[in-house]
């Protein structure tokens, strides 16, 4: 009794009841709470070195090859990979090095190179092309294609009538008659051709050709080479590569050679350099994850930062708020930038670009008896001829529509340089107008030959990247969905999604897509974004592009947006090429002190992976995800 009175309450029945050890009661799970990982001070970034002062690496502690008086940004490389071009340079350079993003690899035997036969990529249908819209075995007829071309011509005639510019419907026929006259081509003496090409033919010892040298290979298959473009749009080129390892290996070799040749940086010095990787606004998270891993783990760069192209372009143009339109080679991306942040809800991805204009121009010129009959866009030297004609001929100014004569040169292996003369009328503007009238483009054919592969299941952060359609894409495809259902109790049920929103939204005309992107930013921001539309990319160099886009946007916005007074479309400043504007903006960004917070080291990437982009990037998450 005395022991009970001295100890108070009896100890609970337990194996340790004859000791003085206190057994804590069971924690009530219902009310359990914790502050673990709920404050900024508990994250890995706060537990690391002070902000803006990264931990010293072994490279920093050792002897550096960089001079002590090197300008700021000389230890930062900016890599902007694209479907057709790679733009790369130091942040301290005034402009980047631009090299074709292509590689030719030597195969074990000529037969292995000959067996490489990816499905052809035909963007513009021709008579006899498969037409998936009309059934499994249906094909495009001449009448269907002529109807699509007539639609574009009708739009052109309407605009010319509005500007009181006469249109001659018989001019194309006269051009065809001129182009069919005998006497072409004219042979140019090799000694007088200052641009003659030293072709690479026969068996070669080099294992790899990159960039411009690939275009000098006379017959890649006969020489035992396979030519590939590693990237396509916002993801890897699945049409030409069968494995993820293959495309990553080519990217590593291509980037390493270019960095060594153009910047005089050896692989051993990579550990002393940081890299800014420019990625598309509507990016593929698997592609970004593999590229960052390639730079940090395989190529052993010191650290990496990821910047979206739209933000870089806005910064390069000196704007904090803008709607950035990037018309690339195979894709067009649209996004609204506000206070240095890409608004993810406004992102649009259009499945056409400059290559579609090139192929459409080829088809239009073929319709007026293009004198170079043997042209084949699957040959690199012929593709170069048509790209040159596109840069010189194409226009979007109605005032330029007149009968004109152009000359061009064909430099083919085993033959002397040949000079041709072609006469054209409205073909040069009809071809460029396909970005505003994209019904002529066969989007189903593109989808068939570019399958989705190599989906990596262990990548987290599903709210990043292009997995889900954005609000702008939802707005763009509302008319394709059935009306919402109204239940007997008055409740409205949204219709089921029976379409591929991203695929359908990628077919929109450029002007409509821009307006829908701005609408997704909110009603109160539409006017502000429409007053600063920035168009970049190689297609922005087409004469008349600014007025063509601005007039079409005005026709859409003015009747729908009350009180809007002006609408402005601009391109890069006069001293900057619009093709390198995003790279230039990243160079400016790298010199800001605040940018030190965005670097990701190899250890941090190995621990967190794509989750690191949430902490150390300016990537916004869509609100509808």
Kindly state the mean pLDDT as a whole number? 85
Q: How big is the Rg?
A: 29 Å
Termini, distance in Å? 67 Å
Number of helices: 21
Shape: globular
Provide the helix percentage. Answer: 25-40%
Q: Going across the biggest sheet, name each strand in turn.
A: 3-2-1-10-11-21
Class by helix and strand content?
A: alpha+beta
Tally of DSSP β-strands: 21
Largest sheet: 6 strands, mixed
Looking at how many chains there are and whether they match, the oligomeric state comes to: single chain
Overview of this protein structure:
With 625 residues, the chain is of the alpha+beta class. 31% of the residues lie in helices and 15% in strands. The strands form six sheets. The protein has a six-stranded mixed beta sheet with strand order 3-2-1-10-11-21, with helices on both faces. Strands 14-13-12-19-20 form a five-stranded mixed beta sheet, with helices on both faces. It has a three-stranded antiparallel beta sheet with strand order 6-4-7. The model is unreliable at 1-7 and 50-63 (pLDDT under 50).
List its salient traits.
15% strand, 5-stranded mixed sheet, alpha+beta, 625 residues
Q: What is this structure, in a nutshell?
A:
This protein is an alpha+beta fold. The chain is built from 21 helices and 21 strands. 38% of the residues are buried.
List the helices and strands and how they pair.
Layout: H1 2-7, H2 44-47, H3 58-61, E1 76-81, E2 85-90, E3 97-100, E4 103-106, H4 110-114, H5 142-162, H6 171-179, E5 186-187, E6 208-210, E7 225-228, E8 231-232, E9 235-236, H7 244-263, E10 274-279, H8 285-298, E11 303-308, H9 309-316, E12 321-327, E13 332-338, E14 341-350, H10 354-366, H11 380-393, E15 404-410, E16 418-424, H12 427-432, H13 443-449, H14 471-476, E17 485-486, E18 492-493, H15 501-505, H16 510-520, H17 526-530, E19 533-536, H18 545-560, E20 569-570, H19 581-590, E21 600-601, H20 602-608, H21 612-615
Parallel strand pairs: 1-10, 10-11, 12-19, 19-20
Antiparallel strand pairs: 1-2, 2-3, 4-6, 4-7, 5-16, 8-9, 11-21, 12-13, 13-14, 15-16, 17-18
Helix pairs in contact: 9-19, 16-18
């Amino acid at each position: 009794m005395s022991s009970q009175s001295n100890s108070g309450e009896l100890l609970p029945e337990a194996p340790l009841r004859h000791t003085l050890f206190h057994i804590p009661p069971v924690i009530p799970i219902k009310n359990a709470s914790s502050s673990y990982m709920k404050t900024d001070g508990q994250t890995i970034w706060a537990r690391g070195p002070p902000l803006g002062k990264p931990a010293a690496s072994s490279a920093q502690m050792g002897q550096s090859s960089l001079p002590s008086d090197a300008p700021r940004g000389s230890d930062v490389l900016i890599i902007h990979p694209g479907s057709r071009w790679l733009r790369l340079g130091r942040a301290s350079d005034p402009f980047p090095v631009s090299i074709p993003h292509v590689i030719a690899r030597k195969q074990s035997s000529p037969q292995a190179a000959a067996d490489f036969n990816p499905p052809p990529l035909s963007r513009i249908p021709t008579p006899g092309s498969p037409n998936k819209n009309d059934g499994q075995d249906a094909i495009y007829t001449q009448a269907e294609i002529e109807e699509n071309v007539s639609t574009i011509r009708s739009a052109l005639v309407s605009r010319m009538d509005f500007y009181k510019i006469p249109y001659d419907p018989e001019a194309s026929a006269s051009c065809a008659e001129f182009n069919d006259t005998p006497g072409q081509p004219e042979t140019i003496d090799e000694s007088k051709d200052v641009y003659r090409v030293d072709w690479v033919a026969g068996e070669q010892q080099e294992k790899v050709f990159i960039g411009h040298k690939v275009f000098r290979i006379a017959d890649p298959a006969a020489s035992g080479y396979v030519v590939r473009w590693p990237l396509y749009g916002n993801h890897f080129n699945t049409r030409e590569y069968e494995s993820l390892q293959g495309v990553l290996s080519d990217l590593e070799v291509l980037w390493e050679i270019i960095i060594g040749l153009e910047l005089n940086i050896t692989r051993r010095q990579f550990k002393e350099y940081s890299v800014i990787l420019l990625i598309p606004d509507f990016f593929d998270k698997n592609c970004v994850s593999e590229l960052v891993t390639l730079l940090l783990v395989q190529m052993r760069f010191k650290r990496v930062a990821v910047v979206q192209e739209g933000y870089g372009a806005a910064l390069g143009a000196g704007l904090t708020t803008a709607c950035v339109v990037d018309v690339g080679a195979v894709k067009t991306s649209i996004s609204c930038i506000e206070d240095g942040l890409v608004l993810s809800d406004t992102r649009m991805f259009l499945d056409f670009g400059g290559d579609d204009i090139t192929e459409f121009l080829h088809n239009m010129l073929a319709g007026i008896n293009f004198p170079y009959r043997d042209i084949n866009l699957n040959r690199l030297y012929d593709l170069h001829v048509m790209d040159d004609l596109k840069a010189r001929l194409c226009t979007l100014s109605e005032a330029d529509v007149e009968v004109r004569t152009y000359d061009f040169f064909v430099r083919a292996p085993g033959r002397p340089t040949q000079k041709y003369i072609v006469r054209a009328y409205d073909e040069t503007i009809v071809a460029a107008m396909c970005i505003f009238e994209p019904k002529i483009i066969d989007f189903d054919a593109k989808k068939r030959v570019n399958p989705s592969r190599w989906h990596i299941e262990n990548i987290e952060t599903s709210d990043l990247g292009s997995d889900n359609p954005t609000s702008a894409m939802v707005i763009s495809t509302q008319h394709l969905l059935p009306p919402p259902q109204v239940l007997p109790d008055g409740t409205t049920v949204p219709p089921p999604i029976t379409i591929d929103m991203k695929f359908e939204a990628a077919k929109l005309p450029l002007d409509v897509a821009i307006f829908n992107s701005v609408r997704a930013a909110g009603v109160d921001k539409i006017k502000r974004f429409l007053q600063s539309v920035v168009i970049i990319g190689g297609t922005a160099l087409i004469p008349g592009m600014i007025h063509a886009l601005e007039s079409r946007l005005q026709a859409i916005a003015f009747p729908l947006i009350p009180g809007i007074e002006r609408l402005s479309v601009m391109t890069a400043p006069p001293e900057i090429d619009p093709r390198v504007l995003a790279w230039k903006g990243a160079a400016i960004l790298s010199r800001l002190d605040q940018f030190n917070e965005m670097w990701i080291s190899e250890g941090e990437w190995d621990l967190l992976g794509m989750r690191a982009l949430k902490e150390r990037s300016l990537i916004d998450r869509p609100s509808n995800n």
